[in-house]
Amino acid sequence: RCVLKELESLGKALYGAKLIAQRFQVRSCSHLKNPVSGSACLLSMIEDGNPHHFFVATQDQDLANKVKKKAGVPLLFIIQNTMVLDKPSPKSLAFVQMLQTNQLVPEHQKQSIVQLKEKEGLTKQVGEKRRKRKRAGGPNPLSCLKKKKKTQESKEPSAEKKKRKRKRNRVKTEAVLSVDKKE
């Protein structure tokens, strides 16, 4: 509402921007009786960690710098007819890192879980660590196999292979000479 009031007060120069702003859903703010500037109103709406998960779209660099100082507030810009989502601010990145380190379980719940485990005797004490003994391994299973005996059947194929050797027929010189004489 404060942004619409500010656009009305600026006159005909920003009449188009006022028409565009009126198309969007109007969120109620705490400045009903005493309207403040649009940037101050937007900053007040994103206080306390942005509970309504608002995105802030602005071309005002001063407002953008103030928004970047708050964690968890996405920032939009318009550059040459294109909407651009700005990269997360260092404050937002640090906030996310802090949340990841705290994990999902709060600290007081972690402590109560430890106490309940101790009460039930489920915790391991430091002095009672048991080491696994290495058992002596048996012999290599392949070395335990029985040796194969050579059988007659296995010898015969090798004998046949020897018989298959090719013999060279040599022609005696006498036979060659006699063939030459007949011609």
Question: Care to describe what's here?
Answer:
There is one protein chain. By secondary structure, the protein is mainly alpha-helical. 45% of the residues lie in helices and 6% in strands. It has helices at residues 2-10, 15-23, 38-45, 61-68, 90-102, 107-120, 152-163, 173-182, and strands at 56-57, 75-79, 82-85. The chain has a three-stranded mixed sheet, covered by helices on one side. Helix 1 runs antiparallel to helix 2 (15-23). The mean pLDDT is 78. This is rRNA-processing protein UTP23. It is found in: Nucleus, Nucleolus.
What would you say about this model in short?
The protein is mostly helical and 183 residues long.
